[in-house]
Amino acid sequence: MNQYKNEIIIFVSFILMISAWFFKQAQIKQQTVDSVKIEASLSEVKSVIGLMNLWKDKKIVKKVLKLKSLVSPSKVKWHKKSNTVTTSFKKLSSIEVNRLMNKILNIPIEIVHLKIAKMNSLYNLEFKCKW
Amino acid sequence: MGNNNKFILVHTTMEKVSIEGMVDVMLTPQLYTLKKEALPVKYAYQAKRIAPSLFDGLVDENLTYHYLVLKEKDGWLFIAYAPSEIKDFLIKKGLKVEQIGKVYFVQQSVELITSPLALSEKDALVVLDNLVVVVPNLALEKNREKMKFDTFLRPSRGISLGNESSNTFLSSTQTILLSVLFIIFTTMFIIEGIRYGGDSKEQEAKLNKIFEKHTSLKSSYTRKSIASKYQRLDKSERKKREMIKALSKMIFKGSSLNTLEINRNKFKATLLVVNRNVEKRVRELSKKQKFKVTKVGSMLNIEGALE
Fold first, then answer.
1. Nearest to B259 among A10, A111, A117 (CB)
2. Residue spans in chain B of domains classed CATH 3.30.1360.100
3. Are residues A37 and A65 in the same domain?
4. What is the largest CA-CA distance in chain B?
5. A110 Cβ under 8 Å from any chain B Cβ
6. What is the pTM (predicted TM-score) of this model?
7. How far is CA B43 from CA B38, B40, B75, B89, B123, in A?
8. Is A50 found in the same domain as A64?
């Protein structure tokens, strides 16, 4: 053994170097995997937060309540329970229907049911939404 | 750690030996050249630099000599030795190169040699003028007591012959250089590896910061479930709104909305059309949106799915 002392020293230090190189490569690979994983989680979380901010906005209630004020109170029947509103509008002009529809479309609410029916030249509108 | 190597005195008249394991050897003056000089130098390395010039003409020019410098009270003691010559001699006496441990010079133990040290029947080592020399036994007093060679004579500092055996491919210098190079690379790779490991921590911290605000999103299962719920809602509601916008484009001069009903997954609209041209245009627009159109009298029923 002693006669190959130099070779053994070189061999051991070479093995150490190779092991360190493999360690580095493993770390690079792991870092890439971790990075991709974290990046995916980050983008997923951001997208979820974005969707939550849109569809679970606390200001939605106020926006929904504003629908009532768009037409004369005599034409509106309004029923609100928790996060659901069931409403019916009677004898609306086409301008009022348009105004209501534009507003409804721009509020991030789930349209559960919407019914528009023309009676003579006026419209009746039934609407149920939740958020 | 103590030195467990065997310790032998080496001289030209010695018998061939057969020893197992590592051996430290002490050389007699027969295997080195000694010179005493009072030089005006302070340090051993300075004296060592001068050493080769002191032995000019005294040593064999065909051999490569190394030098050991010892500080004396009144100057410097220089020992010149040829490792290759010593090595050859030791091999001749039965030792293997890889067996040879430390090599000492008997001069290093001069103060411990208080009486003649027998080498053979003919020769002995004695101290003359503070120098260890080989003298014939005849020159010694007959009844004078002789000391025995033992480990107590082993000096604290020895030299190495650079025990490369004939089988070795690499010299000590090459070994040192290569191993240092490999170790440098090893360190570099480890440091880089550790650094790579730390890189993703920054993103992880960013993610954790978000999780602190939205604890419900911490679990990937919950996150996926919430994402799926809102994605479905988003997709469905966008479709409803796109459908209403598409339908509103079908209401123009000659076409008016009669009824519209939207549920969670389908819609149905009835449009009143005044003539064939208007009907044709409404049909074309419906076709683009992939709506189903049926005609009942002057009414067009338009239907479609919302999923």
1. A117
2. 236-305
3. no
4. 152
5. yes
6. 0.53
7. 13, 10, 11, 32, 36
8. no
In chain A, the number of structural domains is: 2
Are residues A106 and A90 part of one domain? yes
Which domain does A66 fall in, by range? 60-130
Question: What CATH number belongs to B236-305?
Answer: 3.30.1360.100
ipTM over 0.90: no
Question: Does A51 touch chain B if contact means CB atoms closer than 8 Å?
Answer: yes
For the segment B104-151, what is each residue's pLDDT rounded down to a tens digit? 999 999 999 999 998 888 889 999 988 999 999 888 887 778 888 999
Please check whether residue A112 touches B, CB under 8 A: yes
- Please count the residue pairs, one from chain A and one from chain B, whose beta carbons lie less than 8 angstroms apart: 161
